[in-house]
Design brief:
single chain; mainly alpha; Muramoyl-pentapeptide Carboxypeptidase, domain 1; globular
Length: 140
């Protein structure tokens, strides 16, 4: 079975400890790092647009593991962004688990919380239909 190809991670500006970071880019960076195993989504707040040490630590670990300059800086079109996209393209496309979480929460007993399901799906990724045809799996 083939893998879904994706390279959705595209910076519009640099991300680093000494840069003002676009909130959308920061969220995308956290998602990308999470899918690659370099960022754990905080269960109490999910993926937010706040800079945190865990994001920059994840960037540094990714850079170190991939033989890149370890500076917690990602530039548009730079080696770290390129490497992240190469690794993401080797993974299966993630599904949007929000509808699954909502359905699951409606069917389970009161007090049971399935909010971490979305983090699980983002961490491990999969094509929605299992066909590995991401063009067809994409939401309409």
């Amino acid at each position: 079975m083939g893998l879904c190809k994706m390279s959705w991670y595209k910076l519009r500006g640099p991300i680093g400890t000494n840069y003002r970071v676009d909130p959308g880019v920061l969220k995308d960076t956290k998602r990308a790092l999470n899918q690659l195993g370099y960022y754990a989504i905080p269960p109490h707040r999910g993926i937010d647009d706040w800079t945190d040490d865990a994001t920059f630590d994840g960037i540094r670990r990714f850079q170190r593991d991939n033989g890149l300059k370890v500076d917690a800086l990602i530039r548009p079109g730079g080696p770290t962004e390129t490497a992240i996209n190469q690794h993401l393209s080797q993974r299966r496309a993630p599904i949007n688990a929000d509808p699954l979480v909502n359905q699951f929460n409606r069917t389970m007993s009161p007090g049971f919380y399935a909010g971490e399901l979305n983090g699980y799906a983002e961490s491990y990724g999969c094509c929605a239909t299992g066909t590995m045809d991401c063009e067809r799996d994409a939401p309409v």
